[in-house]
Fold Amino acid transporter transmembrane domain-containing protein.
Amino acid sequence: MSDTTNGQKESIDKSSESLDVAPITEDAVFGKITEDGPNYRNVGWIGTTALMMKTQFGLGVLAMPGILDTLGMIPGVICICAVAAITTWSNYIVGAFKLRHPEVYGIDDAGALMFGRVGREVCGFVVCLYWIFCMGSGLLSTSIGLNAVSAHGTCTAVFVAVAAIVSFAVGSVRTLGEIKWVAWIGLGCVFTAVMIVTIAVGIQDRPTTAPQGGIWVSDYKLVGRPSFDKAVSAVSSIIFAYCGTPGFFPIAAEMRDPSQYNRPLLLCQGGVTAVYLIVGIVMYYYCGSYVASPALGSAGPLIKKVAYGISLPGLVVSSIVVLHFSSKYIFVRILRGSDHLVSNSITHWVTWLGCTLATTIAAYLIASGIPIFGDLVSLIGALLGTFMSFQPMGCMWLYDNWASGRDRPTVKWRILVFWSVLVIVLGFFLMISGTYGSVLSIIASSKAASGSSAWSCVDNSNS
């Protein structure tokens, strides 16, 4: 055993991760893994938990109180739990599909198995576009944080550019095993900031945007009466908060032992759902319709600065992780089957840095072109999130189980067939209707005299 491998094993001992897995020298996706290049199969289940939770937990939690304001407390909680259940099943299917088909790296490979070349190209294009849009929302939220902390120290477009540069620098690290520590930092920062604001809104007299005279009583609603377009737009925002599903493919592909996938999955989904519900309910209960979007601005100027200051690393990490996902997809697609994929050659580095740079530029253009946080989150969830987190997973279960159960169908098989078809149909309905509602909201927001326009220098932290 080499010194490098021994060093890796000692590191694993210290992190309390499993040592039952022999060093990996050959992978169905990456080919031969040697000491002369990056080790893409070096993430244990603890690191996987951090990556999963940072993929799911971040920007979405900032929209939860506003979602409850639109739908009402009770329908909102029901919708959050329903989306959590569906996406937990979808994420489980990702792990099961990877174990059955080790050659699968991303959702495009799954699409190719099920639908051939057309499936590969459609899924590949959508997932790449999805991650770029997610990075754009991360850059936008980072600019909001920089504006809040600096009291609008410079043009917002400059802050977006700064966030893009930092994300490019860190996101260009080549393996998930090397950036999992960034996920831990990001997760801790966002969680701490959100908890500070949640506690602050509970002890303050009233939201700063509420009328300051007289007795304050929160105007929260148990049941809302939104229009159809506003309701589906709110549901789309919930989907965005849970639609890290396509990121679970590359995470599983870089796990040291993919058979341990379900453990971090359940920790991730359970923890994220609990935080979403606590933050959403508490903030909305105390702030009512005066809750800010993003939610970190709900407890007054001082707490707003403190919360954004703490959360800034986490907001940047959100961009870093999705930048890595989108760039790695393109990179693997270009160099797969080539020795350059796992080497330190010039071709390897030029291709990798070219992918990260192109993704960063595209995300910057999106963040600057749609500068309204809530609308961008809703559009991503509706147009791309459902298509990445609902329909393919229903098809994946049918692909693996339809033939084996058709001859002698059991009750369990029939129920799961019905469930898979339901997820597919529901995904298409939410994608079409949610996109319609999101587009109407973007048009309305653009017409409003809020000062938020494409490539604007106006302070975007005063929502």
Summary: The domain at 39-211+223-447 is CATH 1.20.1740.10 (Amino acid/polyamine transporter I). The CA atoms of residues 105 and 253 lie 6 Å apart. Residues 1-20 have pLDDT under 50 and may be disordered. The chain has 15 helices and two strands.
